[in-house]
Amino acid sequence: MKKCWHPLMLLTLCLPSLAWAHWGTMECTKLSSEQLQCQVGWSDGSGATNYDVMLYDYDDQLLQQQVSNERSLVQFSVPEGDYYIVFDPGHEFAIEVDGVDIK
Hints:
Blueprint: H1 7-14, H2 16-19, E1 24-30, E2 35-42, E3 52-57, E4 62-67, E5 73-77, E6 83-87, E7 95-98
Antiparallel strand pairs: 1-2, 2-5, 3-4, 3-6, 6-7
């Protein structure tokens, strides 16, 4: 008896990792002139808890570091001067948000 494979079944077997692929996301907002908040998560809409989020100045000096809480949130004091925030979930690309883009 000859086995016959359906083309869709072959595609499903060959590409399983693509179906589950997702990447990190980060959205930051100013709560006040002195506080800002960032929410980190995944492209599928789920949150990312217990991840480091870092705030750097433009000289790449680490100014503050927080760990995302159970709601995938971190809060920082707004530093003087220019800064950017990094969420690096350890996948392919780190997410950076520049301070001038935070409203």
